[in-house]
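Lecture notes, unit on binding sites. The following record was shown on slide 14. It pairs a sequence with fe (ii) ion.
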Amino acid sequence: MKHELMELPFEYDALVPFMSKETLIYHHDKHHQAYVNKLNELIIASEFENLSLIDIVKKSDGAIFNNSAQVYNHDFFWNCISPKETKISDSLENLIIKTFGSFEKFKTEFITKASTHFGAGWVWLVVNEDGKLKIVSTVNAQTPITDNATPLLTCDVWEHAYYIDYRNVRPEYLENWWKLINWDFVSTNFDSIQRFEQTNYINDCNDNSDICNYVESIIEDERTTS
Ligand SMILES: [Fe+2]
């Protein structure tokens, strides 16, 4: 199966002045494209040739892992930003406030983790395997999906993400990247987990009544679309 470079969900100049057209051309058309090309080259005639991108990330190591994870991470990253005004859902905002103390404290912790991350990598807001919200950083191509965490938001802190616009001033990139976060996408990721958990919770309903058959059909939909 040939993997394709995802299209940017906005125009190349849509994020100006926070992210330039030149940065998007290099980041998406050169760096992201290179990971896609290398992945396609590496999986020819291998056990990974017909697997989905996520399965490759979860089952591979070495160069195939690095390139597949970078494709996944960048796909996720582009969806996490938007030139449009977006809004966080009440349920996610409430959990962030409960977990971090306030929304400002959450932002400070996220930006600090991204500013101080040594070298190339990614910073994420995830829901861990135990259902807790957490800010984590990953090195190079590492990605939280290999730890059974569900990503809600990510920021690329590889130098190629910001060097054209901000040179070595990563904190300035992060402050401006924050203004671009697509909270609709982040909230949808969170709400998907909530829906899945709710339907799992009522999994014991099996008395063959109409309502239980309906519930079972929702559960089945969630399983096939998650
Ligand atoms: Fe990148």
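Take-home: The chain has two domains: 21-194, 195-225.
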